Amino acid sequence: MSKKPLIALAISIAVSPITFLPNAANAETVPATFAFQGSGYGHGVGMSQIGARAKALAGESATAILQYYYTGTIVETVTDTQILRINLGNLLTSAKLRSDSKGAELQLFAGDLGETQTATPLLTFPSKTSLNLNLTDGLLAISTTRGTTSKAITTGSAFTLRWSGTRYQAGSPTVISLTTNGATKKYRHGQISLKVIRDKTLGKRLAIINSVRLQDEYLWGIGEVPSSWPTQALEAQAIASRTYAYAKSTKIRSACDCHLYATISDQTFAGYSKESEPRFGEIWKAAVNRTAGSIITYEGRPITAYFSSSSGGTTETSEHAWGTATAYTVSVPDSASVDVALNPRFASWTREISQAVIAQAFALPDVISLTVLSNNPAGSVALIQAISSDGSFAVLRGETFRSRSKLPSAWFSVN
After folding, report:
1. What is the pTM of this model?
2. Is the N or C terminus of the chain more exposed, i.e. has fewer CB atoms within 10 Å?
3. Which distant-in-sequence residues (6+ apart) come within 8 Å of 190 by Cβ?
4. Number of domains present in the structure of the chain
């Protein structure tokens, strides 16, 4: 998982709105913003990435780093050749795919093809041809654009895209560019499924899913830490990322038709953009390859290897962050996170958050005051209360509030 919230497990505490008689507090002007100061970045559960880097600089091994942050665990070897379905784009209404690789050949097939399934392609097209995806009347409408010429191809609910230079097709390596919501990312391995899925709130939407092998094609693209970091920190991250994905590899999520999201909801999968970094991409790939098959286990089972950028000086437990205890996420000292030299951006931070964001976080019409009611043993906010100008109030877990308000961490105070 990433430097930010990995999963949406935060629990809010429901408090029935209570109306007070008019008083001076209710007559206060609703503030435009609220000011906070704090330290750390992310939920702070499990491995601190800044802490791992500091320990690597001090000469500690990857195994020692992992066993420090995941109490009572061991590192062992498993078979990690599973194929993972990674959601690259979710709840979309449009997207564009293309390759500019010289000599590339791309093929579009009807249906969501399995790994070993063969079929006759609907369309074969060369590089510099855009495949345009649009949701139209609940179906995926596909067209192509080459130069100034556009052509409608087909409509349907599921398709598969394969390209030359992969396990599926011979040829020189091909890089695929995927553009969604104005942002473009690059991918190279596996195949891509294009599907219509149904969301409970939004109805039918598009999902784009990359099927890749865990041991290399997926892990080479994990963009969680800089590839220039010390070797042992990179290896610790590779093992933690492999463990997290391995634990998720047994179940397809219906919401995304995937094992994992490519975002901080799980862990950041940057695809070919990570492994192709000048100079350092090969260093990251080497760290992945050296740790082949290594995962973290507790009492014989793979753990959910939570990690984040940094803490407020002591790591958090999963119980205090999200309400669910795990034996291996014990709070441990993490002084590197509050060392400005080691964590210059987040050892100490200040933020101003707008009234609209704060009110939305608490589901109140507005907020006139915020009060930290209690702190967890690690120092993070346990409960925070907001009072509205109409006298109603609500209470949230600190981690829930941090996630909803986009504060860097739950180690904060209200100014």
Report:
1. 0.90
2. C
3. 83, 166, 167, 210, 211, 212, 213, 217
4. 2
